[in-house]
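Bumping with the actual sequence this time:
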Amino acid sequence: MRPLPEITTENRSFWTGGARSELMIAFCSDCAAAIHPPQVVCPQCQSCDVEARAVAGSGTIFTFTINHQQWLPGMEVPFGIAVVDVDGAPGVRVTAMVNCDNPDALAIGQRVAIGFQQVDTVWIPHWNIAATGVTQ
């Protein structure tokens, strides 16, 4: 079993939004900056008026790697891990595993959609390859 993240006041929405199939990203209510990882103070304007909002749950692969190391017993390898530019949250990139049959088919610019796996009270995000493929 993989270690679970520590749930804090700042990140609770991110790690539990999957219960509603929502990717929750923190935003500053004063300057509208998207903030990830979630923080209590906006790094742009130093406002403390930060709240989590659901975003589209889609994005574009910025970069990726294919892991061939079996880190835990029973872990299937190889698998892809992607850093994704999140739609609707300018400047936010979320790193997560990619569900796909062939990790060698991953590509920079490929469109993905968020999915979640529940583990205890945490919803672990993962990316799924979107039907639209690669952006130009």
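The tokens above came from a reply further down the thread. The helical segments are 12-16.
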